[in-house]
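Protocol step 4 of 6: structure prediction from sequence.
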Amino acid sequence: MVAALDVGGTTIKAALLDEQLQPKATLRAETARSADGTALAAQVAQIVASLSEQAGTGTPAAVGVVVPGIVDEETRICHFSANLDWREVHFGELLEDEVGLPVAFGHDVTAGGIAEFRVGAGQGVRNAAFIPVGTGIAAALLLDGRIHRAGGQAGEVGHIDVGHSLKCGCGAIGCLEAISSAAAIARRYTERTGRPADGAREVVELARHGDEVAEEVVQDALDGLGHGIRTLLTLLGPEVIVLGGGLFTAADYVLEPVRDWLASHLTFQKMPELRIAKLGDEAGRLGAALLALDRLAAL
């Protein structure tokens, strides 16, 4: 058994899973926050104990935790996480001391990609990218059959300049994330209409039913994604792009425009196969479990 926790800025999704990734216990909790990571470490220890008690299986063999931010999975240090207000938190070591078990600590999107590449939509491919379009945009990169991490710096495709004039939260102008993320889609629709939008899915539904502003906002977002994916293809040449996140729950409406944009803008680059992610919200948690199992195998 391994305990797996997908930690977000507000919510933790946790599970106790066996080697076949079958859940034996699950729970959700509100994320405990402190700048040094100690509050979360204590909470993880409590969650692991609760999962073990719920399942009646005893202490798990290892714990996998994934968070948003810049995470070096080898050193198990989170260099920065805006969602958790962390800078230079040695969380892997801190948590291992807290729980007394082997700990794998990683990045949530990378973990989600590992899950999609091994047991989801990206199986059987050696060069691929997993791009979930959520509050932000990042990518997990599979190059020649191996996850490319670069100390947590790889895959920040949300900060590719796609040529617009909007300012990104990172401080730069033109970032993909500032026009194509789910948060950006909802924000831009609200700014233009004065009507609050409950996420990107609502804006997509409005576009589907003929709302002209929603159509323009969604088209801008999909054009931006096309630009970002073209850059990724030019640099790394993935055979498969696995697309996920809230925007692509409406795959029947948004996938073909991205494919059409690529078909009309690629020159020498090879057209990738676009696939929709299979694991949904479970990808991060399953990836955390796989990281924990990998940690055990390496001991």
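Step 5 (inspection) to follow. The chain has a mean pLDDT of 95.
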